[in-house]
Design a protein that fits this description.
The complex is a heterodimer of chains A (about 375) and B (about 250). Chain A is an all-alpha fold and about 375 residues long. Chain A has helices at about 10-15, 20-35, 40-65, 75-90, 105-125, 135-155, 155-160, 180-200, 205-215, 215-220, 225-250, 260-275, 280-305, 305-310, 315-330, 335-345, 365, and strands spanning about 165, 170, 175, 255. In chain A, a hairpin with a 2-residue loop joins β2 (about 170) and β3 (about 175). The two termini of chain A are about 40 Å apart. In chain B, α3 packs parallel to α6 (about 155-165). Classes of the chains: A mainly alpha (about 375), B alpha/beta (about 250).
Chain lengths: ~375, ~250
């Protein structure tokens, strides 16, 4: 058991509450920095994919986990980011009055992908201000379908279902968007996005978001502008998801509207709910879950008796089953379980089972008012 | 000197006149109480003042400034804070975070400054924390700083909510049934705090309360409502002996 003696208000503001944080996160950082040197290329690619999903997860977490607004349409922002990146770095931006299209460098197109997605986020956020819970989910769902249609029909730009090739980014002979360099790029963006979000959450705007989540009426009475806070949350969430989309475009190398369907939206929602709504850890744990579980199941299949393993649809079935079990037994998701395991070792051998008895109170965003 | 005035205040929900032509003014530094049977429109008046409902008719002023059409989120900045009848705290946040949200109307916000946590943001956070600590000391909440609201007992939540309202540094504080659900000692504490808020902090108090013991102990003037209309107006002992009031409460 660690005892924290607080002598300064700064200690409550600090992200690293005590030296243990610095050691453990330092070790984690070191591990992810050196891991590409020890892994096969395939696994480096998988880790990169994990970071991309985690970035998108952080984006949705800000909206669903911290502002209490459920979105079933985040694939749209993911797609807008991906297509913006692909078009701006590929064919370039072509406007009627220009002789030839402008092709953007990655350092411009990448933020622009986030900004375009954020603008789309504001566009859906403003009409959605009056909607809560399941109605908001339906509105965002509809929005995602519209975007999916636009991506497939606006052929002059997106090339429709024939697909769009994504240009790799080169600096001389150095390719940024493949292998180890891309791994570090995605890792860097993930860390930046997490730090940005954590900073925001310890500042007035982040607290206002949490206030809106827990009680709109009292947030308003404390001077929180509901419309503004929700719009900021939507823009930020969409923007971060758009950044993830831009990286995803380079990861895939080839975009087609089929990558940004409702299933992708659902996967993102599953990611944040299973990871643990209302925690930044949850976004990373959730990304780990949605990526590792199908792979784990594929491996598991080899060890199952043939009669069971050969049943068509056994993987989605198991995926669904695990999902249901997690939601029933661990409302705070993997992060909730993580806290319990951590406490168990901290308190050892005095762990009390009742410590988490009350945690069955769900987040309001889960209750779908 | 009037801090707050309500002139001919009225609101209809469909055909129901929840509040109907209510006039009152609150003097600076007094404790003004609204009482009345259930459904009399007391909380509705609170919701009108905090602008959650739009008035059908009438006018409200604070310090001479018309607030009848002020957006609800600007009310706190003008100096009106409130508590709720059924506690409305931020359940998944700590007491400290709840109180810091109370400072919201005094914060300057910039998304990117906060995302980078610039030194100016850090400095502002520390200043707000100091203000919050004053309220924590005032209400003896030191033990609960880090506790999540959902793990706190009802009595403490009630105090935290009072604290959150005080953190906005209001001129006028609206207390919606401050003693409901509290035991005798907690009610006694609440009475002391209300008195301290009025005399030490110099904040004008407007409250809705059913506990006549508490009302006569702390309030200077009382307004009695029934079916949205004013029944009586005066000192606590005056209204308690008013025949109309006795009739409204006891029937007959």
């Amino acid at each position: 058991m660690r005892f924290l003696f607080k002598t300064d208000y700064e200690q409550d503001i600090q992200l690293a509450k005590h030296s243990g944080y610095i050691w453990s996160y330092g070790a984690l950082l070191l591990a992810v920095l050196i891991v590409p040197f020890f892994l096969e290329e395939y696994y480096v690619g998988q880790m990169t994919q994990l970071y991309i999903m985690a970035i998108a997860g952080v984006g949705l977490m800000l909206l669903a986990g911290y502002t209490g607004l459920i979105s079933l349409g985040h694939a749209a922002f993911f797609g807008i980011g991906a297509y913006t990146e692909a078009v701006l770095t590929g064919n370039g931006l072509a406007l009627p009055f220009m002789d030839e299209p402008i092709v953007f460098s990655f350092f411009l197109s990448f933020p622009l992908a986030g900004i375009f997605a954020a603008i789309a986020g504001i566009a859906i956020g403003i009409p959605a201000l009056r909607l809560v819970g399941i109605y908001l989910a339906i509105a965002t769902f509809a929005f995602a379908i519209i975007i999916e249609e636009i991506l497939s029909r606006w052929e002059s730009v997106t090339n429709g279902y024939s697909g769009l090739l994504v240009e790799s980014i080169y600096f001389g002979d150095f390719e940024l968007t493949d292998g180890t360099p891309f791994y570090y790029l995605c890792l860097g963006v993930l860390i930046a996005v997490i730090l940005f979000s954590l900073n925001l959450l310890r500042s007035p705007t982040g607290r206002a978001m949490m206030a809106v989540r827990d009680s709109e009426i009292s947030a308003q009475s404390m001077g929180v502008n509901l419309a503004k806070t929700k719009t900021i949350a939507f823009a930020l969430s969409a923007g971060i998801t758009g950044l993830a989309g831009a990286l995803f475009a380079h990861k895939l190398g080839f975009l087609s509207p089929e990558s940004f369907t409702v299933l992708q939206s659902l996967e993102l929602l599953v990611l944040v709910v299973v990871g643990g709504l209302g925690s930044m850890h949850g976004a990373v744990f959730g990304a780990l879950f949605v990526l590792a579980l199908p792979q784990g199941l594929a491996i598991l299949k080899d060890y199952l008796p043939t009669q069971i393993a050969e049943v068509p649809g056994i993987e989605p079935l198991l995926f669904g089953l695990i999902l249901v079990l997690i939601i029933i037994f661990e409302p705070l998701g993997i992060y909730g379980r993580w806290l319990k395991v951590k406490l168990y070792f901290q308190m050892f051998p005095l762990y009390k089972k009742a410590t988490f008895k009350r945690q069955k109170s769900y987040m309001k965003s889960e209750r779908l008012r | 000197m009037n801090l707050f005035t309500a002139e001919n205040l009225a609101i209809n929900f469909g055909g129901v006149k929840a509040v109907d032509g209510v006039n009152f003014e609150i003097k600076k530094g007094e404790c003004f109480t609204i009482i009345g049977p259930n459904g009399a429109g007391k909380t509705t008046i609170f919701n009108l003042i905090s602008r959650i409902y739009d008035v059908t008719d009438g006018r409200m002023t604070l310090d001479g400034q018309d607030i009848t059409n002020t957006p609800p989120h600007e009310i706190a900045g003008l100096g009106i804070a409130r508590t709720f009848q059924n506690i409305e705290l931020f359940e998944h946040a700590s007491v400290l975070q709840n109180l810091l949200v109370g400072r919201h109307c005094h914060t300057k916000r910039s998304l990117f400054g906060e995302g980078l946590f610039l030194p100016s943001v850090r400095k502002a956070e520390l200043e707000h924390r100091e203000k919050v600590e004053e309220i924590i000391d005032f209400l003896d909440l030191q033990h609960y700083r880090e506790s999540l609201i959902m793990n706190l007992p009802y009595g403490v939540r009630k105090v935290v909510e009072l604290g959150r309202a005080l953190c906005t540094e209001p001129k006028l504080i609206l207390l919606d049934e401050p003693s409901s659900g509290l035991n005798v000692e907690e009610t006694q504490d609440m009475a002391f705090w209300i008195d301290d808020i009025k005399t030490d902090l110099g904040i004008t108090v407007l409250m809705v309360e059913h506990d006549m013991g508490l009302v006569s102990e702390v309030s200077d003037r009382v307004l009695v409502l029934n079916y949205g209309r004013m029944l009586a107006h005066g000192t606590p002992s005056e209204v308690q002996n008013d025949p109309e009031v006795i009739k409204a409460y006891l029937g007959g």
